[in-house]
């Protein structure tokens, strides 16, 4: 049924070839990114054999009762895996480390995000957390997925609504994993993002890993004025304060804020984390530098817990 490699059709022709309505094709394209038409100089969409192949695969999956979001994610993940040069048998079996198929799971999350499909996104996350540990899920899927979403928003592939929807849902799931105090008796860490830092998902992931290792935490979140961090420290008296930032400029502080930072480093252990932090800046302020992804950074702290002294009196 497919035409030659250079053959392209308007959506009405594609609808006739695959036997579905134009409306349904448009929905698959807009909601799940299933189709990837080119455009003529006049702005008309033209569809090719690859779109026909995906539409037929979608039809077959829907006839088997597979939910639309999951079907689209599977189809796109299969194509991406082949494009990346990975081997995939004809029966569609995925070869992956352990039982986690990273590409497929991220594709499921992306398809659900584009459809604003809360149920499908939670289902994908539920399957993920049943398959691997929380730490693996965060490091290998959730944080790379959110980075992919951010890059897609910057490049114009995703709308800001997509990014907000995904961020809110992932932040909520991480918050649900950050359980109450229970029987934890490890060190106390106070976690905050400096002023001008509005991205706190990585820091929330960091908190989850610390909590699962028995640490107690207090989470102040994004855009936290440093004098306010000091107020919280004076009340909580944590052994550790972590300031996390994604860009170097969030650590370009005023003289007054640098004075607060130096006091924080003097009275308890202070650590700088995130891509915006550097070892040089940490050394200048008398702080620890926590390199790497949030999971690795948190686990490195857990390994060094005995080296972290109790907070000193002001």
Automatic annotation (TrEMBL):
SUPFAM superfamilies: Cobalamin (vitamin B12)-binding domain, Putative DNA-binding domain
One Pfam family named in its UniProt record: B12-binding_2
SMART domains: HTH_MERR
Keyword Metal-binding annotated: no
Keyword tags: DNA-binding, Repressor, Transcription, Transcription regulation
B12-binding domain boundaries: 186-312
Ranges of residues in domain HTH merR-type: 8-75
InterPro entries: Cbl-bd_cap (IPR003759), Cobalamin-bd (IPR006158), Cobalamin-bd_sf (IPR036724), DNA-bd_dom_put_sf (IPR009061), MerR-type_HTH_dom (IPR000551), MerR_fam (IPR047057), Meth_synthase_dom (IPR036594)
Naturally occurring in which organism (per UniProt): freshwater metagenome
Record PROSITE patterns: B12_BINDING, HTH_MERR_1, HTH_MERR_2
Keyword Repressor attributed: yes
PANTHER family reported in the protein's UniProt record: MERR-FAMILY TRANSCRIPTIONAL REGULATOR, REDOX-CYCLING DRUG-SENSING TRANSCRIPTIONAL ACTIVATOR SOXR
Protein name: Unannotated protein
GO molecular function: cobalamin binding; DNA binding; DNA-binding transcription factor activity; metal ion binding
